[in-house]
Amino acid sequence: MTADPAEPAPLVRRPRNAPLARLQRQPRRFTFDAMVRVLMRAASTDEPSSAVRFRTPPGLAFPAADVQEVRDAASRRDVVVGVMGLTGPSGVLPRYYSEMIVQTLRGGSTALHQFLDLLGERFVGFFAMAATKYRPSRAADVARLRRTPQPDAISQVLLALTGHATPHIAPRLATGVNPLLHYAGLFAMRPRSAERLGAMLTDWLGTSVQIIEFAGAWLWLPPDQRSRVGVAGSFRQLGIDAALGVRAFSPEARMLLRIGPLSRADFDRMLPDREILQSLVSLVRAFVGPELGFAVNPVLAAADVSRADTPGALQLSLDAAVRPRLGWNTWLPIDSGSFLPQRDAADAIFDADAIEAQQARSSTAHTNQRTV
């Protein structure tokens, strides 16, 4: 699979090494296959034997779990497994060898135990590779670790379920294909409901996302459909088709994606000129299609709301992440002492069409620069 562009850092997503840290703290809660997958991803390798050095428990006690212990090492992690091996409770050698290992360990020598583990490690590695080969989800994961230029068969099937298997379509997404592969099940379900969209975005961003349907939007009336009076007038029947102005409000024209409440740092990362909002709009557009309009409404937590007359609030800066922007991250008080930040600020609403137009202009400018 072709390498995706770097994904934007999520808002409050769990750290990348969270499964690895949990494996080291609570190894007995992991199955053998899950342990191998976590360590392969941590080592960025598609070979189980390159990421794990398999060890057997030095005794004959019944193994209460597949994974007994995980030990850090310089190159590979030592993992004591109870599922198979030459010796131990699940060993294939006669019991005498396991008893002899216990005796040598009591004498302070680990040579025999390490030697037999060295011989049996290859067989356990083959077992782990077989589990990877015949599980579709694991096969796709291993293909990503290999970073082959051609997409693997499993990824192609998942992209087909999402409707993005046609060449040159998926690479256009700002998010890359990884979110599509991860949420292929939600993309494949029909109809695609607001509940599924909210669940997907909540998991992807790592924070609460509420889908407000029928939020409505003002739609511009085409010049040939506006009301005109006179002999050559049109759309001038009161109560039927006449309308004042050049816009009309449509309750079903747009839905709202309310995100948060967010901290100031996370809120600043959801502004229109930041990469994460552009990726979010791209993912939602892939889910809802080109017909449905939507807007993103990041909500700033009340504790982080600042007003314009706060000391230091209007300090000019070249950094777009910290400079004040009225209506986005800074608010004016009604009068002195009347502004009490007791509620979350949900005033910032960014229309998806405007963000997509900005992306198109940036892409065109980048293409022109490369051409020159």
In summary, what is this structure?
The strands form three sheets. Strands 4-7-8-9 form a four-stranded mixed sheet. Strands 1-3-2 form a three-stranded mixed sheet.
Taking all Cα atoms into account, the compactness measure Rg is 29 Å
Q: Number of helical segments?
A: 13
**Quaternary structure type:** single chain
Q: Mean pLDDT score, rounded? A: 81
Would you kindly provide a written description of the structure presented here, covering whatever features stand out?
This protein has helices at residues 18-25, 32-43, 48-51, 95-106, 111-133, 136-146, 153-162, 178-182, 184-188, 194-205, 264-268, 275-288, 352-371, and strands at 52-55, 67-71, 77-81, 209-212, 217-220, 247-250, 254-262, 293-300, 350-351. The strands form three sheets. The protein has a four-stranded mixed β-sheet with strand order 4-7-8-9. Strands 1-3-2 form a three-stranded mixed β-sheet. A two-stranded antiparallel sheet has the order 5-6. The chain has four domains: 18-139, no CATH class; 151-190, no CATH class; 194-216 and 251-372, no CATH class; 220-248, no CATH class. Helices cover 38% and strands 12% of the residues. Residues 1-9 and 313-318 have low confidence and may be disordered. The radius of gyration is 29 Å and the shape is elongated. Helix 12 packs across helix 13. Strand 2 (67-71) and strand 3 (77-81) form a beta hairpin. The protein is of the alpha/beta class and 372 residues long. InterPro entries: T6SS_TssG-like. This is Type VI secretion protein. Residues 1-22 are annotated as: Disordered. It comes from Rhodopila globiformis.
